């Protein structure tokens, strides 16, 4: 009775203990089969050789992670390595060493190294450029973009691809220079063009060949007014081609037309403008110029070569500093040059001048000048001191559009643009601040620019 009251017999007591021990063993085996980490307190102690091999494997893993990080930073990798990508390479190193028990440790090291890699090289090359947020009131303004060549349409010609990158990086900057480079690139596009079967050159060339080139160039940097005028002219020439004309002859006609356009509207126009402007410079004059313009530089050199003795004051753009190049060029030819790197003391410099000579990126039909940012300040200061302001402009740069401020048409400087502030590349100078506009068709008052437009329409 006492035994029954106190508990089961010894044999019965031992059996439950055996049953409770048996389920524990499979649980441990199950954990091992799933690859879970083993409690480090129960892990077998590693020998000296195993510890050395373990340290060697971890060192190899760290080297692999550092090498991967450098490749990501240099942009050799398409995407940054993350923890998931770095783990297998480390695991492979461990496997080669034959240390299966170190998988849990290597996984931990791999994850830490992967996080370090992600923190150092997680930014892809495209994300290195800060995202610019333009206020909504200025959202209509354009900005040059360094578009990857791989994103371009498959029909974009290699020459146009290179030209777009040069424009986006401002390696080709002046409007007339961009125009000439564009026409020469289009000439190569036409040379390599072959009309597909069942199509005609006049109907197929513009929408399927020229338009992709234009779209790419516009994506790299907004077109200047002269490019827009020339492209409209080129499309008109394509539409005039007789479908019965053989393809090779039609292509030759287009290329000859482009050569004639460049010769008449750019080369000859620059020569005529340079001569007319140089004749306005007399002995003893002091000419004030802004920055560096190819047309202004040629005018000054032409006047000097004609025997006129004068001096030049160069007011430079404080951001671009291109006036330094002009100053060195003029000084090398023996012309007396005074250089000012910014607009400090502008009124004092202007009152020393006998004429302000500027080059226009474009002229609007209401007589306003579209020029480099800062041109308007010079013109206003000269007007206040009654100093004449002479503007040089090819007729291809004249547009029938109208502007009374600098925000209707403009570009944002991509190098000086942030969410807090940005700089405009151009400004608009009203006609009342300008004295005369010199073109290859003659010298006119700014308000008479529409007369030049009518002459151009009649000639076409």
Query: Treating each run of at least 4 consecutive H or I residues as one helix, how many helices?
Result: 16
Q: Going across the major beta sheet, what is the strand order?
A: 4-3-2-5-8-12-13
Shape: globular
CATH architecture of the largest domain, by name, is 3-Layer(aba) Sandwich
Please state the average pLDDT score: 80
CATH class assignment of the largest domain: Alpha Beta
| CATH fold node name of the largest domain | Rossmann fold
**CA-atom Rg in angstroms:** 37 Å
The fraction of residues assigned to DSSP E strands is 5-15%
Succession of helices and strands: HHHHHHEHHHHHEHEHEHEEEHEEEEEEH
Folded structure, characterized:
The chain is α/β, with parallel strands linked by helices and 460 residues long. The chain folds into three domains: 108 residues, no CATH class; 130 residues, Up-down Bundle (Four Helix Bundle (Hemerythrin (Met), subunit A)); 184 residues, Rossmann fold (3-Layer(aba) Sandwich). It contains 16 helices and 13 strands. Strands 4-3-2-5-8-12-13 form a seven-stranded mixed sheet, sandwiched between helices. Strands 1-9-10 form a three-stranded mixed sheet, with no helix packed on it. Helix 5 runs antiparallel to helix 6, helix 7 runs antiparallel to helix 8 and helix 8 runs parallel beside helix 10. The termini are far apart.
């Amino acid at each position: 009775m006492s035994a029954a009251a106190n508990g089961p017999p010894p044999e019965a007591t031992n059996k439950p203990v055996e049953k409770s021990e048996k389920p524990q063993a499979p649980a441990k085996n199950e954990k091992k089969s799933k690859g879970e980490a083993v409690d480090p307190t129960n892990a077998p102690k590693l020998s000296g050789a195993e510890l050395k091999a373990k340290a060697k494997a971890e060192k190899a893993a760290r080297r692999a992670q550092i090498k991967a990080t450098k490749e990501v930073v240099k942009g050799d990798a398409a995407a940054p390595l993350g923890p998931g990508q770095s783990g297998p390479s480390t695991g492979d190193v461990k496997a080669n060493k034959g240390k299966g028990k170190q998988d849990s440790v290597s996984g931990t090291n791999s994850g830490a190294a992967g996080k370090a890699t992600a923190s150092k090289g997680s930014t892809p090359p495209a994300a290195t450029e800060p995202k610019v947020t333009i206020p909504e009131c200025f959202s209509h303004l354009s900005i040059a973009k360094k578009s990857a060549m791989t994103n371009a349409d498959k029909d974009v010609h290699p020459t146009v691809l290179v030209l777009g990158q040069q424009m986006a990086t401002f390696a080709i900057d002046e409007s007339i220079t961009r125009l000439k480079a564009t026409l020469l690139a289009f000439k190569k596009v036409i040379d390599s063009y072959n009309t597909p079967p069942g199509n005609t050159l006049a109907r197929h060339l513009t929408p399927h060949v020229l338009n992709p080139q234009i779209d790419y160039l516009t994506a790299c940097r907004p077109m200047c007014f002269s490019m827009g005028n020339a492209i409209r002219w080129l499309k008109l020439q394509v539409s005039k081609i007789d479908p019965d004309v053989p393809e090779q002859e039609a292509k030759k006609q287009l290329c000859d037309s482009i050569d004639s356009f460049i010769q008449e509207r750019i080369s000859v126009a620059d020569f005529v403008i340079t001569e007319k402007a140089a004749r306005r410079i007399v002995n003893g004059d002091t000419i004030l110029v802004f920055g560096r313009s190819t047309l202004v530089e040629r005018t000054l050199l032409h006047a000097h070569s004609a025997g006129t003795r004068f001096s030049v004051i160069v007011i430079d753009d404080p951001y671009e500093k291109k006036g330094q190049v002009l100053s060195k060029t003029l000084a090398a030819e023996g012309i007396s040059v005074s250089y000012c790197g910014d607009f400090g003391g502008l009124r004092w410099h202007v009152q020393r001048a006998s004429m302000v000579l500027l080059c226009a990126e474009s002229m609007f039909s209401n007589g306003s000048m579209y020029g480099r940012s800062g041109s308007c300040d010079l013109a206003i200061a000269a007007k206040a001191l009654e100093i004449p302001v002479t503007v040089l402009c090819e007729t291809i740069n004249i547009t029938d559009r109208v502007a009374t401020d600098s925000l209707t048409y403009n570009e944002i400087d991509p190098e000086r643009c942030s969410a807090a502030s940005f700089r405009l590349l151009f400004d608009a100078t009203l006609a009342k601040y300008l004295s005369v506009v010199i073109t290859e068709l003659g010298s006119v008052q700014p308000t008479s620019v529409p007369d030049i437009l009518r002459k151009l329409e009649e000639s076409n």
